[in-house]
Every structure is written in C-alpha cells, then in structure tokens.
C-alpha cells in the first residue's frame, strides 16, 4: 500500500473528532502516484487552493461546489515529484477570521489556530506528513504553534499562486506544514527555486526580537523564547537584541490597512453577487472597512512599506536568522476564535520567510515553540540552520520540561 493510501485510510478513520478535512479524494485517485523524491506521499491541501476533481470553497457556502478542472501550480509541482493530494483541508471563511469546525488534536477544547486550521491539525494528528496552507497575517505560523508541528511560510512571491483563491494580492503566500524540518526541506526543494543551502560550518548570528512593545506573552511562551535563546548561545550562537520597537506599531498598522483594502476588493465580486448574503457578519464588516480606505492612503502605506522593508533588510544584514514569538501563548481555550496573529504580521508584511519550530509543551500539555525568521530569499539557509539546531533546542525542552514553568 502506498503511503498516500495509508494516509487516506488514517484520515477517514480519525477525522470524526478533529474535523480537519472538507472532502477526501477517491481511493482510485490516491492509488496512483508518480516517481520522484516525494513518490507515494500523501498530502493535504487548504481549501483555497485548487485540486483537480475536488471543489474549492474557501470555507464558504458562497463558493461553487463544482470540482476544479485543474491543479494549482503548487499541487502540480508536488504531483510531479510523486506526491498525491488526498483531500482538501478546512480553512477559516475566505482565510480570514471566522473559523471552521476543526479542533486541536492536542486538546479538542482548544483552538487549532487559523486560517490554515485543517492543514495544521491533519499533520498534528498524524493523518498526513505534509499539508499546504497559506498565510496573510499569521495563518500558518499560528496554527503550527498551536498544534505543535513545523510550519513554513516562504518569501513572498516565491511559490507560484496560480490556482489559489488570492484575496490579498501583496500578502497571500503559500506555505506548508510537516512533521519535521527535514520534510519541510524536501517540500522546499520542489516548490522553491534554487537549491538547498550547504550545511553551515560556523555558529549562527542570531537576533532576538521579543516584540514586547506590541503584546504580552504567557509564562510558557516567554520561557520558550528565552530558553531557546539560551540554548542557541550554548551552541555558540552570537546573539544580539536589536531595538526595533519604534517600527512595530507602524508595521502592524500598514499590515492591517493593506489586508483590509486588498481583502475588500478581492471579495467585491462575491459581495455584489447573489451569494453575498451568505458571508459572515465579520467578513462583511471587514469588507466595509476596507472599501472605506481611500486609494491614495493605500498607495502611501505601500510607499512607507517599501521604505521600511529596505531599512529592515539592511538592519538585519549581518544576521542569519531572527528568533521571535510564534504566538502570545499556547492555544487558547475555545474554538470560536483562531487566536492572535499579532507576532506574525510584521514578517508577513515584510515578506520574509518564517518558520515555526515546536520545542516542547506547557504545563497543560499544549505545544509551545518559537518562530524563526530570515531575510527575503534566505529560505533554504533558514531551513538549513533549523535542521542543524532544532534537535538541540527541542531536546533541551523535552529533557527539562520544568524550564518552561514560571
């Protein structure tokens, strides 16, 4: 039996509680796989990305149930490497804030995060080893953190978006969830141009960005970040703590306004169409706010964005990667909200690659971890550093769980 067939069987058997899947492929479709580095592997696809023969409904009844005629480019690339899509995973409505039915496999009473909730949960539950997601603000890093899996958001624009339902044109980025960093590198070798970076032969140069000016951390999240920095120092890392607080609120404001303006225009055909009444009140309100943003203001924000991006690229020019919070806390209780993306948005606005690395568990058993970020187009180097160092960071937490206690 192919790995994809086994993944399909696990998903059918185990999804009643997790509810990670919108629909699953037919067994006959999954029984066929090509050759390549991912031969036979099954993967999930967030339901904003097309898979031939399956509908793409973006978590909304406003979208057609007709099956897609062809694969999205990223799905086609993975097929060409021998992998097989076994189904579509749950997304928040139009990848915004209204959650779907997915529960956190670590504790069903807690949110799995969002908007890529189904993809993160399917990997965390062991149904598949990898799944595609997307990020506009924190839609990959946050669910990766809450579900305890590796989540990778590449540099903006480096994964082709043909076949994705794009709403925020300058923010939406396709990424993926995996069980470990090595698997993430395998996916990167297929979806990202260029080759994997050579194994670094020196200690890394690391910037610690606590981002405390924009939000507080739970005891577990704070300890996780601080102890990760301590372990990296023990591994020989040169650690700096650049003062970026003055820019953070500006970056968050630009992200918020950019997202609203682009989301509103991207959804306008739905809002004005016959199915507009099926949108949630939260989404309709977001569209109204976005349409109220003058075009001149949007242009001014993008000009300021470009300026800050250049300044930050130069400011972190001698840094291999940044460590910073993935989320304010472990997964919050309740499933009516996907949690806060506050600590992810600035990196999404800059378009830099971001990686969530799980490192252990808080006292309540929920996963915790740290976000690693690199400058634009340093994707392969970031994954290389993570593969080299993740075992040390994770091992320190797993061998000494008391270190994340307050």
TrEMBL record:
Residues 7-383 form the Amidase domain. Residues 97-120 are annotated as: Disordered. Transmembrane segments: none annotated. GO terms for molecular function: catalytic activity. InterPro entries: Amidase, Amidase_dom, AS_sf. This is Amidase.
